[in-house]
Amino acid sequence: MLRPKEPQHFEMTEKEVSDLLEHLEEGELSDKERHQLREIVLAVLWMGKKLEDRELSIRKLQRLFGIKTETARKLFGSITKKTHDADSLERNASSGESSNGDKGPFPTGGSGRQGAKDYPDAEKVFHSHESLKAGDKCPECGRGSLYFYGFGSFVKLMGQPAVRAVIHMPEQLRCSACLAFFTAKLPEDIAQGRADPTAKSMVALFRYGSGIPFYRNEGLQEFLRTPLSDSTQWDMAEDVADAALPVYRVLLEKAALVELMHSDDTSGRILTLMKELKDSNAERKGIFTTGILAKSGNREICLMFTGNRHAGENVQALLDRRSHELPKIKLMCDALSRNEPKITDVILGNCTDHARRAFVDLIPSKGEAPQECVYFISRLGLVYHNDDLSSTMSPQKRLAFHKKESLPVMQELKTWCETSLAEKRVEPNSAMGGAMKYFIRHFEELTQFTKVEGMPISNSAVERLLKTVVLHRKNSLFYRTENGAAVGDILMSVIQTSKRAGVNVFEYLTKIQINRKAVLKNPEGWLPWNYRDNSVSSPHHPR
Fold this sequence. Notes:
This protein has about 550 residues and is an alpha/beta fold.
């Protein structure tokens, strides 16, 4: 009797299906065709049962039977601008990047569950088969011999305190005559201080990598009966920043030499500086955190600066370190004058997202969107789509592609804005008129990606970087002193740079603490992308 079973993945071409049916009618089936027919019958029986139990989905049917339907991304990857509708353009244009990250303008499904390859630094435990070994006879067929095929994988997630306490108890001896004490010597790295470098790294990551305030971590540690006060955590984080300071200074020097720089501001708070500015006659009272993302090839350097200076002034301070013999740097920022450095020796590009956002902000939460907004966003969506298509091209080919495909669209939008204002179809002093005038006024900078090799289309990269700062500000509210802000800037900069270098940030922060003297002597050899070449292991801190 045939028993329903879940079929294995197999594929049949149209010709194979046609041949099978033809040979079935003739009663002349090959061994391969008999096997295919048997699998089909079992699959139909299994499918009927699963459908009855409502345990079968279309996605699983596609996977089992090898149906090769093309994804939307493949179907529409070569779509022309004439066939775009406003909805698809809106999806593609969101925030200057594709709606599915780096996977293209069309979203693809996923379970959201990580596999073993997503945990490259996880501990690996190997298990031998409980009853079989290589060389044994196959228990299924009894004919073949087993051979080593490899290891499977099963990810087991374990919990542990962020910071745990280990009590070391050295033996003590005492003389019965003179009462002298003799205490066992602790290992050197244990005796160096109360807090291990690993604990300091974790505290720094909690606060300046994930935005978790010291007092919240203090409460978490209380749940785990491992008390860790917020003041102790501050001392630990400050020590990590002290170890990372030489690396941070080298990052400043390296950032001044790059080909492309993104910059932007967000508000900041430093209590002592706020009071000082309030009591002074200073014209500028604001405090800001500037985020700078410096790119050279595939290497990215992240820098944070918190204080009374705007982004343009912080960029200027970096560029003052730059040799005049180097070619002009490409700078991407928004169109605020405070974001531009006070020199002309840069190729300035403005963020297309900001021009688009001016129209997006005019769309009401309820009711129909103004036709001008629909038209502008839809047409601009073609430019974003072109940027997605050219993302894997060389810089030269990408520039030529944008010049051919995107520049005419941008020029068309500029003409449309100018005509709408000139013919008074839009009131120049209205919000819609302001959005159009913004696009016209900054058209040269907004179209630099069609004229300059390697110029990005938007400033979204540094805006994503600043989300770390915003999260920290939201959870912690403020820095108390300028020294506290400096510690935060150093650690955020080093953490985010390490993250983009693809290294284990926890390991990196720990290594630069353990090798503090070597880092101070040769900080360039301890950058996130080359520190493993110089790292020295210790018995208690394996590499």
